[in-house]
Design brief:
Blueprint: H1 3-21, E1 27-33, E2 39-45, H2 46-52, E3 57-60, E4 88-101, E5 107-115, H3 127-141, E6 145-158, H4 162-165, H5 175-181, H6 201-204, H7 206-218, E7 223-228, E8 234-239, E9 242-243, H8 244-264, E10 267-270, E11 286-291, H9 317-329, H10 334-337, H11 343-346, E12 359-361, E13 368-371, E14 382-385, H12 394-411, H13 440-448, H14 453-458, H15 460-479, H16 483-489
Parallel strand pairs: 1-5, 12-13
Antiparallel strand pairs: 1-2, 3-4, 4-5, 6-8, 6-9, 6-10, 6-11, 7-8, 11-14, 13-14
Protein name: Glutamine synthetase
Domain GS catalytic: 127-493
Keywords: ATP-binding, Ligase, Nucleotide-binding
Length: 493
């Protein structure tokens, strides 16, 4: 029996198992992920789910034809447009993604992936499909597997009262409604002041703090570490390490969980990369390691006596190629790690944020922090990619890391720059790495260039589509009139 037949048989068996598991349910919630990492889905009847669980169902392609505010792209793109009538895509349920939503009466929940209904191939821009392709490259060419952990920082704001945020007293208070009539700085922070790793600040919102932690556990996106971070109303969550595919799902569902739970407490979580001028931004650091068929970490090696750099004494040859590949391709994939106009407000000098192609053993200001013995155990040897913000799509970030790292292994890549030493500043005289893009326009132009490494590892269809979505974002910002402009020029010009 071929692999496709085996997969079909396994799927049939799982569908039958689910008939029993969902016997007492009346409905099922389904959701896919768009290019901005936002869940798009619907509630369906149990009968409907039973009819589509095996072969999938039609889902409007417009979720790849409009932006996060449902505005169609200025330049229509290949996947969804007027010419193809914003046709349906084939949405295939990932039966292994089953969990129940604890804050919605334990309604069953499944993630879906999107396929072309004619070719049955993954839609180029489908985040889950893109990551699956990178994992298949890794597993088909080698016996390697990949594990990851994600850390999210995010600000939290108190929702104003319903009377202050809306002309109507019906329904819960809305931050969006409040901000239509008030400046952003009028939205109060959950707590004031700077107090990272505080044991007392969470007590101020104790029920909310523990509800997030416990609900994430129930929804299968468990938190490993949970604490306050430096900044007014800022928390940080380190999600429990697992295989890359499951980690991407958990990272996406973590945001969904936080936003859903926060609503009950009148709180608005904010995963923007830089919500407040002059304060630290929100990072989305990603930890990645490679394993062999037995699950053993293959980035580690016993200490080498005379390595090229002291930093890599405990890093295997495969690990060196993987790291060099990420460093080489990093400038060409920046829109995946820093996807918005606001992303680049975080990536500035003097804020513990990486601004160059840089790396180093236990260097927390570099783009990539190598974590290896003697500061960790052999099995914990890994790379922390520190460029991505909390606003990035986790599927795209992990896809970029794997694609570039695998390219590095394949090409036996060499380091494009030496490591940064302790005390050496990122962007300083000793930093030999090139400056990363300063804004989304610069990043997108490099991403879409004919000779971009992004095109080599992802193909033209994905680069052209995703690049087109970023060009849309840039145009919207070009046409926007900001508060800064209005205040600066209203009287004096």
């Amino acid at each position: 029996m071929g692999s496709q037949d085996s997969e079909a048989q396994r799927r049939l068996e799982r569908v039958k198992e689910l008939e029993n598991e969902l016997a007492n349910d009346r409905s099922v919630k389904l959701a896919g992920v768009d290019v901005d990492g936002i869940l798009r889905g619907k509630l369906v009847s149990k009968n409907k789910f039973s009819s589509i669980a095996k072969d999938g169902f039609g889902f409007c392609s417009v979720i790849f034809g409009w932006d996060m505010h449902d505005q169609t792209y200025f330049r229509e793109l290949k996947i969804s447009n007027k010419e193809n009538g914003y046709k349906d895509l084939l949405a295939v349920v990932d039966l292994d993604s089953f969990r129940r939503i604890p804050w919605e009466g334990d309604v069953p929940f499944f993630l879906v992936s999107f396929y072309d209904p004619d070719t049955k191939q993954p839609v180029s821009a489908c985040p889950r499909g893109l990551l699956k392709q990178q994992l298949e490259k890794l597993s088909q060419s080698t016996t390697y597997g990949a594990k990851a952990g994600v850390e999210y920082e995010f600000y939290q704001f108190k929702l104003p009262s319903a009377s202050a945020s809306s002309s109507s007293t019906d329904g819960p208070p809305s931050a969006a409604a409040f901000l239509r009539e008030n400046p952003p700085n009028a939205l109060p922070s959950l707590t004031d002041g700077m107090f990272g790793y505080s044991l007392t600040r969470p007590v101020h919102n104790q029920a909310y703090y523990y509800d997030i932690f416990n609900t994430c556990q129930e929804f299968d996106c468990p938190i490993e570490g949970w604490h306050t971070e430096s900044g007014p109303g800022v928390f940080e969550a380190a999600l429990e390490n697992t295989d890359v595919k499951r980690m991407a799902d958990r990272a996406c569902l973590f945001k969904y969980t936080v936003k859903s739970v926060a609503t009950k407490y009148g709180i608005t979580p904010c995963f923007m990369a830089k919500p407040k001028q002059g304060l630290p931004g929100n990072s989305g650091h990603v930890h990645v390691s490679l394993t062999d068929a037995d699950g053993k970490n293959i980035l580690y090696q016993p200490r080498e006596e005379n390595p090229q750099y002291p930093d890599i004494a405990h890093l295997s040859e495969t690990g060196r190629w993987f790291l060099a590949g990420i460093l080489e391709g990093l400038p060409d994939v920046m829109p995946l790690l820093a996807p918005t106009i606001n992303s680049y407000k975080r990536l500035v000098e003097n804020f513990w944020a990486p601004v160059t192609v840089s790396w180093g053993l236990e260097h927390r200001a570099a783009s990539i922090r190598l974590i290896a013995p003697p500061t960790c155990s052999e099995k914990a040897t890994r790379f922390e990619v520190r460029v991505a913000g909390a606003d990035a799509n986790p599927y795209y970030v992990l896809s970029a890391i794997l694609a570039l790292g695998w390219r590095g292994i394949r090409n036996k890549a060499r380091f494009p720059c030496p490591p940064l030493g302790k005390g050496e500043d990122v962007g300083g005289a000793s930093d030999k790495g090139i400056r990363l893009a300063r804004n989304l326009r610069e990043a997108t132009e490099r991403f879409m260039a004919p000779d971009s490494i992004a095109r080599q590892v992802f193909g033209d269809d994905f680069v052209d589509h995703y690049g087109g979505t970023r060009e849309h974002e840039i145009r919207l910002f070009d046409e926007a009139v900001t508060d800064w402009e209005f205040k600066r020029y209203i009287e004096n010009v």
